[in-house]
Each structure stands twice: as C-alpha cells, then as structure tokens.
C-alpha cells in the first residue's frame, strides 16, 4: 500500500514566552480577543474571521474531526477544548503536525497564546500516524478513522494529508460520509504540481490550496481546477508540543482554516448539506480569471441562509396581525415551532405564514412588549431565533346592554372580566366571569339595571353602564260622538 504523506513543509520553533503584544480589538462594538500572539496570526484578519467572531465563535453541538497525527492535549491552548482523543495507529503521543493543525482551529481564547478560528465547537482528534513526528500512514487506517468519526457524530472532517495514489477503500469511506451529510475538507498537496493529491481530488471533497500573506499562490501548493478554495498556508503561527508556538508552511495549514470557517457556518445553520456548502463556496466572489475562491469567513457567514427567520415590524397597532412572516428552510426532515411570549409567559403557538390575532384565553392582549420565538430541529441540532415587538392595544374597555327579546338582555364586553348586574335597588341579580364577547342574561326588561365590568386585566379600569326601560305613555281615553 502506497503511504499517505503529511503535507507539511517548514517548521520553525519559537520559545515559550514570546513577548506579548497589546490586546487587539478586532471589531468595533464587537468581539475583543486578547491573545498575546494574535498579532502574529496575520491569517486571522486576512480570511475575515476576526469579524466573524462577533457573529459566532462556534456552537458546541458542531463536531469537527481532525484526522491527523496526535495533537498535544496538554498544551494550555488545547487543554480545555471540548474534545475527544482517539488513536487509530500506535500510541497517542503529542506530535508537531497534529498539534499545529489543531491549534489553528481549536486554540482557546484564554489570553495565553494564539486565537483558534473556531474555539467553541467540539473536536475529535484522531491519530492515524505510526509514531511521533512520523510523516507516513496508510489509507486504510485513514478510512477507519473516517468511518469512526462519522459514527461518533462528526459534522466536518479535516484531512491535512494525502498521496499520489487512489485507494477505493478510503474513497468509499469518504463517499459514505458525504452521503450521511458530513463535509470533508482536504489539503491539495505540497508538490508544486498542477494536479492535486488523493483524496483532495475526489468530487466529494473540498480541496484546499495555499496562498501567502500577499494573496499569492504558495509556490509549493498543488493546484488544478478541482481546488475550489484557497487559504493562507505560508508562515502560519500555531501550536507546538510542550506549550510551544511554531510557524509552519503547507496546504496542511490552509485546510483547517477552511474547516474552521465551515464549522462557524454550520454553527449558524447546521442543516446545510455538503452540496449546499459546495454551492455556498461557489457563489463567493473570485478574483478575475481565477477558478478558485479565496477564503473569507465573514462573507461565508453573511451568505449563509438562517434556518429559521422572523420578519415583523417593531410596533404593532392592530389586533389582527397579518404582516409577520415566519419561515423555515425547506428541508423535509426539519420540524419547527413559533411561540408568542409576554415576558416568560407563553401566550400562544403560531402557525408559519398565517395571520393571527392578539387574542388569548378569552381576552384581547394588553399593550406591552411581546416576543416571538422560533425553533427548528432535525432531531439532532436545535436552532432558535426571536423578535421583540411593542404591541399597542387601541381597544377601549367597554360594556353595553340592550334588550334582545322580552325577558332577555344582551350584554357585550370588549375585555374579559367579571360582569355584575344590579337592579334599581342595588341588589345583585347576576354575576359571572365572561370572556370578551356577547352573551344573554335573563331579567325583567321593564326594570332599570346597572351593568358593571371588572376586567381581569388589573391595568384596565372598571366600567359601568345602565339600562333604562323605555317609557310607555298612557293612551288617552277613547270618546265616541253620539
């Protein structure tokens, strides 16, 4: 079996305790990162992740599988990363390459060293290499790791490795992973060739080439028209073993940048399929004459369709609401719900794209601040959105009474409350709680009545109305002419 070689070039060690720079504000009114060495991570700004962090730094239910050599789990910038470590080949012993690629994605924002690009997602680190700093593995070991990663719930798999020869077993594992909705990212290779390595050359894989800090293709990067996206891969600062920080070159460094960016995309919309991710990348702006996209995390996030959306005016003045749009992305396996709240109180469930009334539990809702909360799930991931509105109820509290037929009154209330009917002497003839609306009350229609409405909503005033029976004048006596 032809061995698969690590796609890495230069490694330059830096001592622990490099002079700390001033904390850098990456976005006004946004997220502030205070990692001492972030100013040496030129790629953070070049790919727009500094701006993206104000939108998301990753969701904990998104899992990235790094299939590589062993990441140093005891490095301070990885120690508290939510992760699982697995060894598919030999002991899990800290290795430079796996630690460096892991740091690019997962380095914690803990004010110690560097800033990982997606620090808040979950990571599964798989060692597939024979020993410490060894540069070879075999495709069947990688295939086993891919299968295991899928079984353990990976959303994205990063393969910063590759080789010249095609292997059907690894190819089959990758195809199965994609069919199950898993995104596969792989480095294109460092051979200065105009063709890319396997498995990056598979159509099921997002192949990543490398550029430098001046947006030029790296001299070592393999490139052909199957490379759809490029990212920085020259002079990349990340983690080394034993709490060190090192610079490395390679498409191995570019691939985890794409993986981390897609992890942020999936954090916003976990229901995107690999095909939809391909389309998202394809729609990104490209330099004139280029067949590939240069990674820009912020632009990817801005182009990412939210799985659930609420469109509504900030103020409502109508009790009959028909200008609110509740929408969910069109995937057959998604289930959604929309709920109207006042404070923490659930008022009613809403149906997407149908009008509704501000009426609940027998009463028109009072003026105040309300919130619509939408939820969508595929059984594995849940995502929420909400919209706060100010509702102005222009309906006045009122009660009226009239005779509907002999011996029966019709009483109408505009708000829910206790209705009390008094006779002319102030004696209670009738008292009951009623919802807003019209109802009959039996009584002597020839007698004077007072009707009182005490609203359930204590913010509303008690209102009173009276019923005066019609005055029937005596008819004059009839006289006959003799």
Automatic annotation (TrEMBL):
<keyword id="KW-0645">Protease</keyword>
<keyword id="KW-0720">Serine protease</keyword>
<dbReference type="InterPro" id="IPR050131">
    <property type="entry name" value="Peptidase_S8_subtilisin-like"/>
</dbReference>
<dbReference type="InterPro" id="IPR023828">
    <property type="entry name" value="Peptidase_S8_Ser-AS"/>
</dbReference>
<dbReference type="GO" id="GO:0006508">
    <property type="term" value="P:proteolysis"/>
</dbReference>
<dbReference type="GO" id="GO:0004252">
    <property type="term" value="F:serine-type endopeptidase activity"/>
</dbReference>
<dbReference type="InterPro" id="IPR000209">
    <property type="entry name" value="Peptidase_S8/S53_dom"/>
</dbReference>
<keyword id="KW-0732">Signal</keyword>
<protein>
    <submittedName>
        <fullName>Peptidase S8 and S53 subtilisin kexin sedolisin</fullName>
    </submittedName>
</protein>
<dbReference type="InterPro" id="IPR036852">
    <property type="entry name" value="Peptidase_S8/S53_dom_sf"/>
</dbReference>
<dbReference type="InterPro" id="IPR015500">
    <property type="entry name" value="Peptidase_S8_subtilisin-rel"/>
</dbReference>
<dbReference type="Pfam" id="PF00082">
    <property type="entry name" value="Peptidase_S8"/>
</dbReference>
<feature type="active site" description="Charge relay system">
    <location>
        <position position="252"/>
    </location>
</feature>
<keyword id="KW-0378">Hydrolase</keyword>
<comment type="similarity">
    <text>Belongs to the peptidase S8 family.</text>
</comment>
<feature type="signal peptide">
    <location>
        <begin position="1"/>
        <end position="20"/>
    </location>
</feature>
<feature type="active site" description="Charge relay system">
    <location>
        <position position="97"/>
    </location>
</feature>
<feature type="active site" description="Charge relay system">
    <location>
        <position position="68"/>
    </location>
</feature>
<feature type="domain" description="Peptidase S8/S53">
    <location>
        <begin position="60"/>
        <end position="282"/>
    </location>
</feature>
